Amino acid sequence: MTEKLPLPKKVTVCEVAPRDGFQAISTWIPTDEKIKIIRRLAQTGISSLEIASFVHPRAIPQMKDADKVVSTVIESLGGIDIRALVPNLKGAERAVDAGVMKLKTMLSATDSHSLSNANATSKDAQQKLTPIFDFAAKKNVTVMGSISVAFGCPFEGKVPVERLIEIISRYDAMGVKEISLADTTGMAHPKQVYESLAILQKEFPEMVYSMHFHNTRGMALANTLAALQRGVTRYDSAISGLGGCPYAPGASGNVATEDVVHMLEEMNIKTGINERNLLDASREISEMLQIKGDSYLLVAGPTSTLHEEKITKQKKVEQ
Ligand code: ZN
C-alpha cells in the first residue's frame, strides 16, 4: 500500500490583490478599473476576498476610494466571504458603512515595524485596537486579528514564536477566533512555519490560522506546503503575484493565486476556483494594470498543458 501525505482535502484561498496588490501600486488605478478587476476576480470561483484597506487617504492614497469601490461592488459579490483591513475605529466605521461584515486588524509583530507603521510599539498598537472590537461587537461584525512580519522583520530579523504567543494571547482575550499570520517580507522558511504552527496550535487549540505568504525569496509555495502539513486550510494570495508592503523595504509580491491554486489542485486539494478562468483573469488584469504579471503559471502554463512533440525533428538532428 502506498503511503499518503496527510493533507487537507479542501482549502479556502483568499484573494488579496484588491488590497495588498493595489496598495503597492503607486500610479493611481481609477475607481472604475478597481471595480472591474474585483468583478473579474469574482468570476473565477473565489470564495474569499480581501477587498480594500480603510486606511487614512494620506497613508495610502491608492485606497482613498475604498468606500466607493466597496459600496459599489459588494451587493454583486454574494456568496463570497468579504473582508477589509482596518487600522482604527474610523476605518472600521467606514468599512461597515460600505457593507463589510468582516474586519481584519493591522498589527506588527515587532516594535520596529510597528513604530514605522503605526507609530506605537506592538503592545501599545494592539491595545489601541480595542475600540474596533467594541464597535464590531455592537454591529455584530467579525474581527480577525492579523500579525504582520510574523516570522521575520526587515528591521529586527527572526521573530521568536514567544512573541507570537504574547500577541495571540492578547487577541484571544479580545475575542478573536481567527489569526492571520503574515510573512510580509518573505522571510519565513518551511521548517520555521511548520514548527511555529505546531507550537501555536498546541498553545491555542481553538484558534483558526490563516497564512499570508509573500514570495520575496521564492519560499511561499514551500511554506504553504508546510502549513498544509499542519492542517491549515486558509491561505491568502494575489492574482499575478501583485503586492508588497508600503512600510517594509524590499518587500515584493504575494504568492500568486494561480500558482497556489495550481499546486493545490495538482495535489487534489479543492479550492473551488476554476484554474483556466483564473489564469485568463491573471493575464487580463496584468494587461489592465499594465504590469508584467509575476507568476510561474503565466510563464509556463499549467502542467496539464501538453506541448507538441518535437521527437521527429530531434531525431533528425541526432542523425
Ligand atoms: Zn501582504
Describe this structure in words.
The protein has 319 residues and is of the alpha/beta class. It has a single domain, classed as TIM Barrel (Alpha-Beta Barrel). It is 42% helix and 14% strand. The chain is built from 14 helices and ten strands. It has helices spanning 17-23, 31-42, 66-73, 89-97, 111-118, 122-127, 130-139, 161-173, 190-203, 220-229, 257-266, 275-289, 296-300, 311-318, and strands spanning 12-15, 48-53, 81-86, 102-105, 142-147, 152-153, 157-158, 178-183, 208-213, 234-237. The strands form two sheets. The protein has an eight-stranded parallel beta barrel, surrounded by seven helices. Strand 6 (152-153) and strand 7 (157-158) form a beta hairpin. Helix 2 packs antiparallel against helix 12 (275-289). The termini are far apart. The mean pLDDT is 94. The protein binds zinc ion. The site of zinc ion has 8 residues, from loops.
